[in-house]
Amino acid sequence: MSNWALAATLVFVLVTMLLSIRRKLGLEKEIAVGTVRAAVQLFLIGYVLHFVFDTRNPALIVLIIAGMITVAAFNAGKRADRIPGIRLRIAATLLVTEALTMGLLLSLRIIEATPQYIIPVSGIIIGSSMIVAGLFLSAMTRELEAARGEIEALLSLGATTRQALRHSAGRAVRSSMIPTFDGMKTVGLVQLPGMMTGMIVAGAEPIEAVRYQILIMFVLSASAAITAIMLGTVTAGLWFTAEGMVRRAGRQG
């Protein structure tokens, strides 16, 4: 893509801002900031990846993945700001999800052990898992608000926190996984996913692009299940105060 073609894509940003102004949505600042940040961040990571791909230093690969997990945990944790220690639990969950899925991909030789494969696929896994984690926290917050009385009654009757949360946590886990599996049902019919589209635009054969997209979809289904189930397990005790009352988990401010 030429610099001119890239600059011309700003017309889509201008259209969005004009629509916001016309409809008095007040999103102009957010659109402008988001546009600048996205461009700067992507160019920076592009130069970083260029350097990492050339050096092939394993320490740099680990550092980049650790950075992805840290940012993802911080972002997903915004859904439950009032829960102490929630971001640490999210980071641990993302780390385990990444280790399990990437470990299998490499040990089974499904992908090559090179930065060109490890970093992009890790980004897809961690990004998708971050969304699942955020959906779980949002669903769990709603579940706790709706079933607060029932949960506290169970606790007063001697139930453990895990027993009291069993049904609410189960519903939250299912709710967080639904978008991933709904996407699998319609992929190729409603949308052509990003990796597949990118490969085709770059000149790859459509069937080869499909093979990689199937790989990614299957990996994301596993990572969604691991993330949701593990997060439901490791956060069980965080939803209660020391007095055994259900915390209010929504975002502060």
TrEMBL record:
It is a multi-pass membrane protein. The chain crosses the membrane at residues 6-22, 34-53, 59-76, 88-111, 117-138, 214-242. The keyword Ligase does not apply. Keywords: Membrane, Transmembrane, Transmembrane helix. Coiled coil: none annotated. It holds the Pfam family UPF0014. It is found in: Membrane. It comes from the Bacteria. The keyword Nucleotide-binding does not apply. Belongs to the UPF0014 family. This is ABC transporter permease.
